[in-house]
Amino acid sequence: MTGRWQKRLADAAIPVAIMIAFLAGWEAVVAFGWVRPIQVPPPSRIVASAGELALDGFPAGTLLGEHVGITFLRILTGYALALALAIPLGLLIGSNRTLDAATAPIVTFCRSVATLSLLPLAVVWFGVGEASKVFLIGYGCFWVMLSNTIAAIKLVDPVLISAARTMDTPPPDIFLKVVLPAALPRMVAGARVALGVGFMVIVGAEMIGTTRGLGALIMEARTFYRSDITVVGMFVIGAIGLALSYGLTRAEAWLLPWERRMHERRP
Amino acid sequence: MTPRATVFERLAGTLSVIAALALWELASRFVWRDPQILPAPSEALLAAARVLGPWDLAQHVGISLFRILAGFLLAALIGVSLGIVLGWSPLAARCLRPFVEILRPIPPLAWLPLSIIWFGLGEPSKVFVIFLGAFFPIFTSAWRGMTMVSPTLIRAAQTMDVDGARLLWQVAIPATLPDIAAGLRVGFGLAFGILVAAELIAAKSGMGYLIMEARQLGQLGIAIFGIFLIGVVNLVADHQLARAVRATVGRWSNV
User: Fold this and answer.
1) Residue in B closest to A227 by C-alpha
2) Quick one: average pLDDT of A157-169?
3) What pTM was computed for the model?
């Protein structure tokens, strides 16, 4: 057993050593004045700025926690609204061929409209407040989730449905007990993609017309020549993304216990 | 699927698009009326025709396409090669993995402020952000594809004395191509969304800028025209890319 632990330790040592060397090199390059700290803020400065941001706040005393909270709220509101609309609609369209044929070009087109290009319209319709940001996130997530839900229903193995029919299963039961469980994995995968889209949209949406939220924070920091704060903001956004994605994985395991083996394929 | 079914689907699709446009036209003429809220499609087209010359339009579309192609091609080149290296060499993977895992979750648009600090407001800052957007999907699918190459395939080749560079070039990489193809399409889609955002925030030309400028001048019709233009260009570009990928990389896959 000790041999295995030693090997594990050795495996972990290399990346840790490389990381430490990298951070030290980065710090040194700035300390020697080879690059300007505004271009590449050194790690020590970034850590200090993270503390400053959490305790004193930036810009104008907005604490890091507030930025995180407001961004989180915007994403979750838009995402939840999009899912609540897209899932029933997708189930309906996916299980009706005429409806699917009629809506296919509209869904394809609306999906390929770049979400952030709607920003000027969103501002005109909803003002510069929360509603326009939630609308943009909702729009981006909605079409992704809708097209994935439609595809999930359409791709259910027809043999399953025929088999259920030969056993005289009533149509509502076919839908609830056969089609829906078979479509769920793809729908969850779609929900994951949609969350990623929402994440991309929020950063762009917050860069214009607001001083609260992480997107605004990193953009404001640049105009004040505080690239160290920009970097802190970037890492915080990344960490939230990781946390949400982890939460979704947990929800998936809870929602779809029969799909767990699909994830076990990957180390 | 029978030809009749396809004809029916085409017809249903066309009819519903016409119906949607007609509904919008009627709604904005009789219900909302205010062209500052929702101009009709016909008004948007007329406004665009009045204000934008064909040359202006070609320039905006051209510069956007240039940015996206530059960023995307760079991402394809670097992403595919790096993915192959990390998938082939466990040592490289172990050394670089922490960096990848730290950088990957950062949304590409969040790099925009730093990109402006590094490259200024010119073309490179936009190309860099687009590059990042396309890079991670391409890179991760190439990497993932390399690690998922069937061990049986590798062992079979090894029993035939194929190893080293030949094993990589003639067995592992061709087996990864379907994954690379999928990554390229996802990467292109992301790059397009980021292009527009980057042009909205920090540009003086391109389709995203066209929309932003229209908003500032209060020409909502032009903005709507621009939104549709971006959608159409995205559809066409994605279609062309899918064809190119099928013709080259996708030859080995049966997709």
Assistant:
1) B114
2) 86
3) 0.85
